[in-house]
Amino acid sequence: MHDYDATLSGHGNGLLGLLKNDISQPFMDLKDPCHSFSLALNQALQNLPEIMRFIEDIHSHFSWGQRVAQLYQVQFEKKRPVLGLKRYVATRWLSLGESVQRLLLIWDDILEYMKNLKEKTSNFEIKREKEDEFLKILEDKHYRIKIRILGALISRLNGFNIEFQSQDLEIQNLLLKLRECALFFGSLILIPKYLPRTHSEFKSESWKVLDEEKLLSTNDFILNLIRDVNSDLKPIDLLPMTEKENLKEIFQSFISTLFCRLIHYLPLEDEFVNTLDFVTLNMEKEDLKNKILKFNEVFKIVPENSIHNLTSEISSLAKESLTLLRIEAKDSALYLWDLVRQTSTKYKLLEKIFKVAHVLPISSAPIEQAFSTLKLIQDCNRTRLREDTSEGLLLVHEHFKNKEVKVSRAMLQSFKQVKAELINKKVKNPSDLKDEGIIELEDEENKKGKGKEEEEEENFFECQAEASMRNAIQKRKTPLIEEESFKPSLKIGVGNQDFSDYSYSSGKSKSTLFYLRFSHCRSGSTRRTRI
């Protein structure tokens, strides 16, 4: 599963080519649908340079905080929802569609903001050509209709993109959804008899350019936009014929490019993808056998000497009546196979094949989203998280992603058990740690002996520190408090050490030795003081 970057998909020095040369084991090479949608859209948008320039410029204008604050002020005064433009990021798959929808939502607020801005700048005779251009476009109702049509088309494409990002989409629906997406945009511009239907008709070579005689008329094109894309586009039908033809000329070329690029990038003609619907078990015996054997050729799940047994299992399965099981499975091929496996245990080889088929990814989007989530979990403040801890937090996040989090008693009990096991692993007998060579006991460290100079230095620093502490107390005129509970906390920012064991009790001072590290910025030297 990859995008179309040369470093990944290149057959020479790309990752794909290197894997094929170095690895003898089978692996699946599939064009990622979500990346395909993004690439097709980016190339289709080249037909709308004027509209895209306006969208980019208006988002760039409101990248300044002061301008956003002025827009909020306009919305507050008009008692409208206080909303700004969404941040448009060209590399994000859904960003453009969401940004255009927000732009349409606050269109009138932005228009009011531009009018106020023009009044303020006219008093100071400041020329703002860009703002005047914005004002002219925002007041143009025909231009607003163009943005509305573009937003509706991108929203439909984003809808397909979101479906492929979901982990609920089963493998048998991959080809079905890919064809549904391509045919949806093709039906907006093509006469029905020219739409591709069979596998061979989706060959990308035959869809590089669309002939004019295959395209719909102006009225039919406008009708399809209103009926199939968004019913809110109904006011377009009331426009004069000249404006309708203008809209058809603009957006028919956009949709044509999008449709042709979708056929080019999506794996619609991939032979392997065409075999994946065998998991539905809803086909003739010969078709089922051919697709399973084709699938097995790619992954080498069943060895050559067991192919005869595999075909026998396929024949036996094809004779069984699965009607009741299909009703109970409710269009889920994964659940259907679970039911088949529960009713019979004689399909050992088929079970291996179906397991591999159902774990195949639909898209690389869930993996990329998992990395983004992991970046939020293991940030710069939590760099010491262990691998198993990070993995556990990520799995918990994915499990409760679209669910309400309810902490049960079983979860609490499991947490306590795991915590106790971790503590038992960390806490050990010091003698055991000594035998393992992890730590050295303090008395053994003292037996090594210290030099005369080192002992004198420690005594010197100890006396100096005690003298400094007495002077500080005397200057503050703070007498020693004769209370057992008095323990002033000395927490000094040196790593994670806590120097809170300096205390007074019953009029006698009890000092604990610790090191303070401080640096002289000019000399760069480091000194240690022992108190």
Oligomer: single chain
Largest beta sheet: what is the strand line-up? 1-2
Q: How much beta, percentage-wise?
A: under 5%
The major sheet is characterized as: 2 strands, antiparallel
The SS-based structural class is: mainly alpha
Low-confidence stretches: 433-450, 476-531
Question: How many distinct beta strands?
Answer: 4
Fraction of residues in helix: 55-70%
Count helical runs.
23
Mass-distribution shape: globular
Question: What is the residue-mean pLDDT, rounded to a whole number?
Answer: 78
N- and C-termini, Cα separation: 62 Å
Order of helices and strands: HHHHHHHHHHHHHHHHHHHHHHHEEEE
Instruction: Give Rg in angstroms.
Output: 35 Å
Pick out its properties.
531 residues; mainly alpha; two-stranded antiparallel sheet; globular; disordered C terminus
Tell me about this structure.
The chain has 23 helices and four strands. The protein has helices at residues 6-9, 15-22, 33-44, 49-61, 65-77, 95-105, 107-123, 129-138, 141-165, 174-187, 218-229, 241-265, 285-299, 307-319, 323-329, 333-343, 348-358, 365-377, 387-399, 409-426, 430-435, 442-447, 452-475; strands spanning 503-505, 508-510, 515-519, 526-530. The chain has a two-stranded antiparallel ribbon. Strands 3-4 form a two-stranded antiparallel sheet. The chain is globular.
